[in-house]
Design a protein that fits this description.
metal-binding, 2,3-Dihydroxybiphenyl 1,2-Dioxygenase, domain 1, 128 residues, 2 domains, VOC_core, alpha/beta, four-stranded mixed beta sheet, 38% strand, VOC family protein, 16% helix, metal ion binding
Length: 128
């Protein structure tokens, strides 16, 4: 395989407006394209981080729930690299987002912490 990079991450949410607010207004991702697909009763929102396409946020009328805890099989979490975990954790707390205490990666010595999106998808802040 000759992969260049990860192209995007697709997320299906249960409440489109709530998730759109979270990813755009709370996390600060930029909207590239927003489409409502009438035939599927589904939104598709393309989001960018620092100008780079990263997330497709989808809505569907009745998506089934997918367990993420305790340590369910499958995709574990989505991690965002940050310069300062302590500062970014506080910014999330200031916006009313519940964030776990900061931990240190035993192998790299770098700080990290977890929080969740409106559908309880585990998200991580990992210090550069």
């Amino acid at each position: 395989m000759a992969f260049n990079k990860v192209h995007h991450i697709a997320i299906i949410c249960s409440d489109y407006q709530k998730s759109k607010h979270f990813y755009v207004d709370v996390l600060g991702l930029d909207i590239m394209t927003e489409i409502f697909r009438e035939e599927r009763q589904s939104y598709k929102l393309d989001l960018a981080l620092n100008g780079e396409y990263i997330i497709e946020l989808f809505s569907f009328p009745t998506p089934p729930k997918r367990p993420s805890r305790p340590e369910a099989q499958g995709l574990r979490h989505l991690a965002f690299e940050v310069d300062n975990v302590t500062l970014e954790r506080q910014r999330l707390l200031d916006k009313g987002i519940s964030v776990e205490p900061i931990r240190t990666d035993e192998f790299t010595g770098r700080k990290f912490t977890f929080f969740a999106d409106p559908d309880d998808l585990p998200l991580e802040l990992y210090e550069k």
